[in-house]
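Continuing the series of single-chain predictions for the mutant panel. This is the parent chain; the variants come on the following pages.
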Amino acid sequence: MSDKSNAVNAKLQKRRDHIEELQQVQALLAKLQAVFELPKRMKAALEEDALGTAVDFYAEALPLLKKYGHRGTFRCACWLQAVKAWSWVAACFACL
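Parent structure:
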């Protein structure tokens, strides 16, 4: 009985590990999605004169931008132009 229990537990552990790995990937994808939506979200906040909200959006994305900002897609000219268009928000954030 103990051997069967151990075998079942081992098989379930593999599945648990796989599910945990998938959850980590899903969390990273959600963070990346938020970063890619950053220019649009900041623009909408700024158009509504919600500077605090724009700063919050920037603050949420900052760790990921610092970690991966030098990589391929983040260097896309259109994306960088959108972020630079609101770079004064970053300056405001740095003063806080």
